[in-house]
Amino acid sequence: MTKKLGIVTFSAAVGRSYKENLEKVFGDDVDIFDFSFENNNFDSQNIINQIKNLDTILISTYSQYEMLRNYLTDDFNVVIAKLTLSKRGYNILKSLTDVDTAMLVNLSPEMAAETIGLLYQLGFDYIKFIPVYPNMGKIPNIDIAVTTGEMRFVPQRAKRVYDLGHRLIDESTIVELFINLGLEEYLANKSVSEYFDTLVTYNIGVEYLLGKSNALKNQLDALLSLMDKGVIYANKDNIIVSCNGNAENIVRINKIDMLGKAANKILPEIDFSDKQIKDKLVKINGKYISLSCYPILEKDGKYNGSYAIIEDFQSKEDAQNKLRLQLMNKGHVAKYTIDQILGNSSEIEEVRNLIKRMAKSKASVLITGESGTGKELVAQAIHNLSNNKDKHFVAVNCASFNPSLLESELFGYEAGAFTGASKSGKKGIFEMANNGTLFLDEIGEMPIELQAKLLRVIEEREIMRVGGSEVIKVDMRIIAATNLDLEEQIHKGLFRKDLYYRLNVLPIYVPPLRDRKEDIEVLIEYFKNSMHGNFVITKETMNALKEYNWDGNIRELINCVRYLDNLEKSKIEIDDLPHNIRRRISNEVRRDLKFDQLDEILEDEKCLVVLEILHEAFLNREKLGRKTISQKAYNKRFNLSEYDVKSVLKKLSYYELTNSSRGRGGSVISPKGIEFLEALKKLNAN
């Protein structure tokens, strides 16, 4: 029976490259399927069923595993790919004897950073590589560019370009794939050796010593005690003879409970045998461990035990992420520029003009607008036009932390400030943003008790860490954003008025998509091209999309384009649109119909109750908010939550039956709504 191997990558192009290489290695013995987060919806039942039917999955990062783990059982075979260069690419780099600085071009900041880390591992650390990727704000002024198969992203200013070819899956990963698929006997195939001959290997150093050593035990034990990875040695009789302290911490078993015991009893997950294993993912005592095993051979080839090198997989991934952040200005980077704020409408042109005018100022900026309109993109564009553009851009979502955690994240803390605090303390976000830009997203959700402390930072430009006594001076530009009406929040006592006026020095309002409908076609074409879509939208369908309300704004539009791209149809008609959009387009056409045709309102008891309450309020010259409407509905023995009221008011607004009196007391019934109720009363009377 033919085995099935799945490849999961973030980029579709990278997945196709891996697939082509593995098809050469496995031939007809394995069916290979490639999936990418770029092209596949992993919430789709069809995709889930395909994944469950595979024998093994190849992934490249722990983050991918976290995304897939809900669809996999614990015993599912997962292999983490290690990547290397081809010998051709390696020799190209070796020939660059006159190069000390070069751009490293790849399709994303993360992949550029990973490639730089690989090149440094291979010994090219004497070249300073600068990551370059699409939509990067400022391209470095460097004449030499190096890329791994991504020539289309190389800046035109590069005078010398060296393409190393796509990175390749290394030989240890290939061996592990054969083992997981139960095809070890095919490792001797010519196709495997031919593929290995194209690779550069870099597993030397400690692994080489472990593979060859059968002496110098005292010196090796001293070496193991200094290693930052866990090391466990089992002799030829499968008895654990030695281990270092890190191994104890990783497997959560005391050294005294391991030494002298049978390895297959204490650690059955580790295969201490004469087989070599590299970077296998295993689960020990509830933790995912990256495992490599190296047999020790005598001069005559006789087996004399094995060393297992283990590492907490999450810690390994965290370390890689930290390296990536260091390579990319420590991760505090504003990726987007004003050029990414797309559209030809007067509304979006006004936003771009405001950004240009306000960027050079040091005053605080408050960006308002509905969810999904691109407020963070505006914040990053301001930073990249400011005098701080070469400094840190630090973003924090004020709604994602509880009050105590947000305070320690913002202000930092001293060693031992609270239970679980780091022994060395921690620098806070305010300190990280010093001399740069601090972006406070969803500022309206910041707990009221923290708002006073933020106000002090803005006024005094100084902070004190949690548990500390030293005053630390800070200086940063503050940009805040919210989708809430802060004046309404002030009225409710949920936001400080003094903080509001400190933040709202330079206001920018980002309009919703329905208020700049002439930009919709431009945006659809841009996102379609960025996804490499090859479909055409009919004129009728495009007109319908322009008239659609887009409550989710840009975020909803991107989802729609991604949906259409995955249909794999050359022409998109109205019936091809997502169901929720198609249904809403149909409903919105009915806005101008006569009252007796508004069957959706007539059939919705919630709508009728809210209309009745609003009509009573109209007669009493009263303006109502959602909370009051909910209470009045309850008095009528009708249970309506504030969320229900919000939903009903939105539906009624489609038919112009209500008017929003935002910031002045709530919602009121419209003249058209009164006329509707009068017509309804006559209808009932008859």
Work out the strand percent: 15-25%
Shape: globular
Q: Helical segment tally?
A: 29
Largest sheet: 5 strands, antiparallel
Approximate helicity band: 40-55%
Widest β-sheet, arrangement of strands: 12-11-15-14-13
Report the span from N to C terminus.
Answer: 75 Å
Q: Assign the structural class, choosing from mainly alpha, mainly beta, alpha/beta, alpha+beta, or little secondary structure.
A: alpha/beta
Average pLDDT number: 81
Uncertain parts: 203-219, 320-330, 589-597
Could you tell me the radius of gyration in angstroms?
A: 31 Å
Please report the total strand number as a whole number. Answer: 28
Q: What brief labels describe this structure?
A:
28 strands, five-stranded parallel β-sheet, alpha/beta, five-stranded antiparallel β-sheet, 29 helices, 686 residues, globular
